[in-house]
Amino acid sequence: MQESMTLAMYGAIAGAVALAFALVTFASIMKEPMGTPRMKQISEAVQEGAMAYLNRQYKTLIPFTLVVAVLLVLVLPRLDPRIKGDALAISFLVGAVCSAIAGYLGMNSTTKSNARTAEAARSHGLGKALNVSFRAGAVMGLSVAGLGLLGVSVLYLIYKDPVVINSFAFGASAIAFFARVGGGIYTKAADVGADLVGKVEAGIPEDDPRNPATIADNVGDNVGDTAGMGADLFESYAATTIAAMIIGNAIFGPKGALFPLVVGAVGIIASILGTFFVRTGEGGNPQAALNLGLWATNIMTAIGVYFLSAWTFPGKDALGIFLAVAAGLIVNVAIGALTEYYTSNSRPPCLRIAEASKTGPATNVIHGLSVGMESVFFPMLFFAAAIYFAYWVASWESASHAIYGIAMAAMGMLSTAGIVVAMDSFGPVADNAGGIAEMAELPPEVRQKTDKLDAVGNTTAAIAKGFAIGSAALTALALFQAYADEVARNPKLQHLLTDGHLVINLNNPQVLVGLLIGASIPFVVSASTMRAVGDAAYGMVNEVRRQFREIKGIMEGEAKPDYARCVSIATGAAINKMIFPGLVAVIVPLIVGFGLGAMALAGYLAGLTATGVLMALFLANAGGSWDNAKKWIEAGNLGGKKIDGKPNPIHQAAVIGDTVGDPCKDTSGPAMNPLIKVAGTVSLIIGAVLFR
Amino acid sequence: MQESMTLAMYGAIAGAVALAFALVTFASIMKEPMGTPRMKQISEAVQEGAMAYLNRQYKTLIPFTLVVAVLLVLVLPRLDPRIKGDALAISFLVGAVCSAIAGYLGMNSTTKSNARTAEAARSHGLGKALNVSFRAGAVMGLSVAGLGLLGVSVLYLIYKDPVVINSFAFGASAIAFFARVGGGIYTKAADVGADLVGKVEAGIPEDDPRNPATIADNVGDNVGDTAGMGADLFESYAATTIAAMIIGNAIFGPKGALFPLVVGAVGIIASILGTFFVRTGEGGNPQAALNLGLWATNIMTAIGVYFLSAWTFPGKDALGIFLAVAAGLIVNVAIGALTEYYTSNSRPPCLRIAEASKTGPATNVIHGLSVGMESVFFPMLFFAAAIYFAYWVASWESASHAIYGIAMAAMGMLSTAGIVVAMDSFGPVADNAGGIAEMAELPPEVRQKTDKLDAVGNTTAAIAKGFAIGSAALTALALFQAYADEVARNPKLQHLLTDGHLVINLNNPQVLVGLLIGASIPFVVSASTMRAVGDAAYGMVNEVRRQFREIKGIMEGEAKPDYARCVSIATGAAINKMIFPGLVAVIVPLIVGFGLGAMALAGYLAGLTATGVLMALFLANAGGSWDNAKKWIEAGNLGGKKIDGKPNPIHQAAVIGDTVGDPCKDTSGPAMNPLIKVAGTVSLIIGAVLFR
């Protein structure tokens, strides 16, 4: 026991080191110059809008979190007196607060770095701009991973029961779902609104200061891509660690419970070291620098885990568990490569969409849907292979150890979250920097440099999206198995067990019914989030049209548009529309579990995970491919944007496809990840008190 | 045993009666006049194109069927000597041939009735036109149900083993998959080609004789909606009956094996009687007449089954099994109503899409996707409820009888296939009649009458689509359970059983991996069929453009377009592009079963069924709703087709949505039904010989 507490302490220390490193990095960024007063002013407007949104989002969620906490304290212990309701409630609140802190830290860092990145590009060049923007991303990445590891480790030191601290993951996942959905709606409402009226109707360029929605659009990049993704991966990180701890505890006792923390610690230290590999000179290739950082982190993590596994586990488990972790690392790379294949505009799928634009928007959309649907197969095959492999290697020592394999593969994948989030978050910083360069009317070569970074950011964002989906899938499976373990411990459900295990038989009508209901929920949540973007964008379009009409001198640059009003419309829409899907995500598992029983809930989780992952891949890849097909045409292919001064109909068709893809890839698709995870964490909590 | 053979004889007799009734009806239709020589000529061109397509389709499938038959004879008995390979091969070929016969009979009837319907509308009026077109549909409906029941009953009389005659269902389902996919590609390639160049570019009306693709378009209505749907439901009918027989045999012996035939016989007699309720006068409401026919059939079936169940089963099973059948009948009605709700243009979902067209095609498409995704939830809930209920009532007498419930619910749903197919098939006849009225330049009031029937046909088609999806879902579940029973009898797989039953544990990695792979296959098949339509339509567009350009005098009506070339392009594309998805459907289950084992195949079936049904609902309802949103605008809403003589951009946006929806609702969506069934029938055959 003493030794195991030492392990938890290592986890806490690694988490704290990562956080400290994040804060030091943040302080160092703050010393960089912000450029001209105009740049500072714009940056502050974006920052203000982003913070206003975050404040309102978290404020809206306070009643929800308090109600849940009260239910945890008052209701659960009545259903089973052995349950420590106060511990659950505290863990839940800590999880929710940590998620919010990670969001604030990351958002602060990225929104304060955009002007600094633009200034770095202006006064120093590409290398420095990459350095500033990537450091800003690293603050986000290390905050996410550090807070996750620290929170889980400290709660474990206090409560010594992984099931209690699952509530931490539940808190994180509830917040993550709202952050993902709200952020996704915000960013797309602003983007679609800004583009449809500004670019298409008024014919002014992207990020033009005359466009009233332009600040909202830049805010959206931060609240969607940075805060949403950060919350999502914070949740994956917490939930996977805890699911692995629960399963490990059941199989190996404290040693098994703590090894996931050790893997997390290795990954986080490797991520910190990995950030130092990301450097490039003026003519250099930022993508290569980022890839080097990622590979270095993966390799260092693998080496570290190899030795620690050998030190922790006896017999064949030592190698088996290392290989399971390695499988997670490999799937991570594979999913990233597949995402890149299906969305990159130098590859056949995306070019097919561009080609289909020749016969108009309908064929563009048909081919985009087809690419998205097609893109699910190989990632699913990789997941399946990784699951099979991890299961197999973990069973070498004993068949009963097998299910630890999937959890450790998930842990392996997530251990490098620090650097992956850093790579993802630097993109919006570079994107914003470009926006500021445009709005502050800096020389065009500054914009060219930030555009180069932004293009790299699109690729790293695709990789991070694949990572988020893959980690959500493995996390959900680990939670599913932890749930089965929890039900097996539930004294009221002993009649459901066979040889002490929960056998989730697909031929049992409860399981089948749960599976069918669960499988349909991702469609429902996709539908409601997609509709929300449509409605919110509609409001934004009308507001921008109104300002162009009513504010005199706006098009001549003589009058300032009312940026704040657009920010406030996007904020209001995002907050209002995130409620319904959020409640569906949290409440339906409760209805299924208490109404139809523990078996139905198991089926629900399986069905939800399968279609949730499929929809996530379909929507993300279709959207990404539509986007890049448009960009490829804009680069001058198939006639480019204009032919003989007139809009090129091929480009117009591609713009329509891209707009259809916007809510797919940035709202509905990303909402799938927290959807499947929140169901898992909720189920894990009620698994101990279900009565049928 | 003697008594049970008598029951099978009743099944065979009812099937033969239905077939005889179909032939008599067909003969009576042939006595109706065909109208002017021009009408006759057009009708014959359509018929010729349709028959040419069917001939080529079946000819292409001959090598495939022969290879499968040879494999059944040569390979299976080596894997397990108890297997009668020749019986399997014969049943398979009989199933394939019966499916083809049903296709020919129905197609013959509908293509020979189109001009007769137009003539009836011209010389007698609406009532007579409904009478002719519905009788044509009834020939199809009763051929499908009659051949299904006759084939299964006779094969049972010969082989007395439901597992052997499952091969009949396999034959039917293999053909059905190709027919659905090929027909779906054909109809949409022709439709999109005819519309994009004819209506949009050349500005000539629908069905204008100057359009080279117009005959192909009319052929498409027959090969897609009639032959494809007929093959689909023939398969459901055969597969459900056989799955119910296998499960019933395992539980009740011959009595249980034969009761499904009795339910089929009752349904078919009720369907024949039901057709007599479908009559209307000149000012009458054809929809009401059709609804009356459907309700009468449902009620007669329910009453018949109530008494026969009481006569066949002792104790609580009598009522329980009747209630399970009744649940199937009710789900049938409920799914139809839900389909109608999500696609009708007097309901909110469709109006939302129309409204969204105001802000352009992108928002139209986004809302259409959202409506389609939303529409899956309540049907899935109804399936889940029906499964739960059927399971529960069937377990009243004994828990071991429970799984007979789902099979009997499926049987209840399908027992009325005769009249449902009739209602579905009359639509294309009316649609074609309208086309002929247009091309033969009949007075406009004829077209108005056929349009009225066509509009009703769209609603009944929606109901039939819901029916096809619902029956496919229940059929697939019944097959899934029959598969579990088969594996339990497989001597090599006894180590997989627990208490003599196959426990399909979701916590088993094989099952999980199978589930994930199975869940992804519907996306792959959707993608490939959608892409096929895109590519085939592209070829058609180019051909129509070429004819307009190269054939002089075509636009003035002085030169005849080359209809045959368009027919042949559509045929070639449909045949070529149906191969890949067809092989995926048949071969992947073999790979999973022999490669990963019986458990993985069980997971595969579950995953495939869940997402297959979801995708079927999503695609069909999104497509239907886009279509009707466009029609609603064309009826003069939101500005109608033109504003001040210029194309209304709102209408143009809706046309784009409709075109996106075309392959969704008529190709990819309908392909899902045979996809999930063919996997079930293949698995059922190899379930006896899997070796791991």
From TrEMBL, chains A, B:
Reactions catalysed according to its record: Na(+)(in) + diphosphate + H2O = Na(+)(out) + 2 phosphate + H(+)
Gene Ontology cellular component list: endomembrane system; plasma membrane
Transmembrane spans: 7-30, 58-76, 88-107, 136-159, 234-252, 258-278, 290-313, 319-342, 376-396, 402-422, 578-596, 602-622
Major localization class: membrane
Topology of the protein relative to the lipid bilayer: Multi-pass membrane protein
Pfam families: H_PPase
Description of activity control: Requires K(+) for maximal activity.
UniProt keyword annotations, A-Z: Cell membrane, Ion transport, Magnesium, Membrane, Potassium, Sodium, Sodium transport, Translocase, Transmembrane, Transmembrane helix, Transport
Molecular function (Gene Ontology), one example: potassium ion binding
Top-level class of the enzyme under EC nomenclature: translocase
GO BP annotations listed: sodium ion transport
Family classification: Belongs to the H(+)-translocating pyrophosphatase (TC 3.A.10) family. K(+)-stimulated subfamily.
Assembly and interaction partners: Homodimer.
Entries under PANTHER family matching the protein: K(+)-INSENSITIVE PYROPHOSPHATE-ENERGIZED PROTON PUMP
Protein name: Putative K(+)-stimulated pyrophosphate-energized sodium pump
Organism listed in the record: Pelotomaculum thermopropionicum (strain DSM 13744 / JCM 10971 / SI)
